[in-house]
Amino acid sequence: MEELKALIVDAATGESYERPFTAQEIADREVMQAEAVARQAEQDAKADARVSALAKLSALGLTDAEVGALIG
Amino acid sequence: MAKKARVWTGTEFVELASAQTDLTAYSTTAQMNTAIGAGSALTLISSTAFSGVASVNITSCFSATYTNYKVLFYQTHQPTANRDVTLQLLATTTPATTAYYQGLSGTTATNTANNTVKNNGSEIVTCQIWDSAADTSSFDMTVFKPFLANRTTFTITNFNVSSGVYFGQAGGALHSTQTSYNGFSLATSGTNFGGVVKVYGIKD
Predict the structure, then answer these.
(1) pLDDT in tens, B129-162
(2) DSSP state, B113?
(3) Which of B73, B92, B189, B197 is the best mutation test for A, with the most CBs of A within 10 A?
(4) Neighboring chain A residues of B192 at a CB cutoff of 8 Å
(5) Chain A residues within an 8 Å CB radius of B90
(6) What Å distances lie between residue A47 and A72, B52, B111, B130, B141, CA to CA?
(7) B143 exposure class (CB count in 10 Å sphere: 0-12, 13-18, 19+)
(8) pLDDT band with cut points at 50, 70 and 90 for residue B19
(9) Are strands B55-59 and A5-10 parallel, antiparallel or unpaired?
(10) Element (H, E) at B145
(11) Exposure on the CB side of residue B117, measured as CA atoms within 13 A
């Protein structure tokens, strides 16, 4: 696994330096990533549901234009 | 009609007399830059190109000089994982880790909704980067009154790629704590990334 680093830039002086992530920062980022994965799963589920709904409408005999008019 | 040449004296522009050959008493480059900057709506505060880091913390960019700020980011390096690029406000170097609220409405290039919401979250999502794309994602953010001890609000537009899907989003965010902040952190999790981040002060 690549080493995670932080870059700190002081905009007032232009000085900058790098340091490794702290254990707390790594733990915090893992929590944030879990939230992002959950959000992406929700998005994927909505996209899958949309595809399924469109297929069912098509199976009922609606044309693409009619489906488009229905869902905007 | 020909216009007369003008020079900056340090306080005003004056017409240059045709016989004037010595300009040493007139403008310097610094004075001219001051004159040009005085008329600009945006003043560049910080420009940082970075790579191989998981967070970039820009400190001392918010101050009493400006009330509102523009932050621009564009990606230049490919990460090793598909990730959000998130933002937290900094008080000196200490991040604010709660009280973020966000609503971004988005649409993919194939016309599927792609929204991002946060309800008392630990950060703001600015854009997303993909482990198979190096230079695709970017965002444009306006930050309202971060240095004042008021609530800080944001407007955000972005373009992204995630798992091969292109999408754009627009919306806003709030940090509801009434605290003064002088900087911000952009970060990913579990991967380093690279890009350019620019901070501008907006003339009041």
Answers:
(1) 988 888 889 999 999 999 999 999 999 999 998 8
(2) B
(3) B189
(4) 2, 4-5
(5) none
(6) 16, 33, 10, 19, 27
(7) buried
(8) low
(9) parallel
(10) none
(11) 5
Are B168 and B107 within 8 A, CB to CB?
A: yes
A-B Cβ pairs (cutoff 8 Å, strict): 87
Tokens of B181: 């902040």
A:16-55 residues touching chain B, CB 8 A cutoff: 16, 18, 21, 25, 28-33, 35-36, 39-40, 43, 46-47, 50
Amino acid identity, residue A66?
Answer: E
- Say how many C-beta atoms besides its own lie within 10 A of residue A48's C-beta: 10
Distance from C-alpha of B49 to C-alpha of A67, rounded to nearest angstrom: 47
Residues B44-76, buried b or exposed e (16+ Cβ, 10 A)? Answer: ebbebebeebbbbbbbbbbbeebbbbbbebbbe
Residues of B in contact with A50 (CB under 8 A): 112
The pLDDT assigned to A52 comes to 92
Any idea what DSSP says for residue B76?
E
Cα separation, B50 vs B197, in Å, equals 8
pTM: 0.80
Is B60 close to A5, i.e. CB distance below 8 A? no
Alpha-carbon distance A2 to nearest alpha carbon in chain B (angstroms):
7
Residue of B nearest to A46 (CA): B113
**In contact, B54 and A21? CB cutoff 8 Å:** yes
